[in-house]
Amino acid sequence: MNQPLLVAAIVLFIIAFLIGVKKQTWILSGFNQSRVKEQDKLAKIVGSYSLIIGIVMLSGGIINYPNSEKILFPLMMIGYVILLGYVNTKMVE
Q1: Which residue from 39, 41, 47, 42 is spatially nearest to 20, judged by alpha carbons?
Q2: Longest dimension (CA), the chain
Q3: Mean pLDDT of all residues in 60-85
Q4: What does the alpha-carbon distance between residue 65 and residue 47 come to, in Å, rounded to a whole number?
């Protein structure tokens, strides 16, 4: 088992719960929260992405493919940067 991926999966599941279910978007950085038009849509998008990436990280941690963290962590970060760009261009007034 790949422990860094399992820890990352747990953290991502917690983030997905706090943002997607509890709607605590103050956790997110990189945008002005008061300028976001639809807080619920933001919470749903970021929570869903975090859940999906958490499942991928958990799968990678269980499968234990060699050097999988060197592939999955950069892909996760690229996804969050793309998500940040989408939120700042489409959802901010």
Answers
A1: 47
A2: 45
A3: 91
A4: 26
Q: Kindly state the tokens that stand for 33.
A: 């929260």
Q: What angle do CA 63, 69, 74 make, to 5 degrees?
A: 135
**Residue 22 gets which letter from DSSP?**
T
Task: Tell me the two tokens of residue 89.
Answer: 């261009």
- Which tens digits make up the pLDDT trace of 21-68? 999 988 887 666 778 889 899 999 999 999 999 999 999 999 988 888
Sign for the CA dihedral angle at 82, 12, 38, 33 comes to negative
Return d(Cα 46, Cα 27) in angstroms, integer. Answer: 11
Contact 30, 88 (CB under 8 A): yes
> What are the residue ranges spanned by the domains of the chain?
3-91
Burial string for 10-22 (b: 16+ CB within 10 Å, else e) reads: eebbebbebbbee
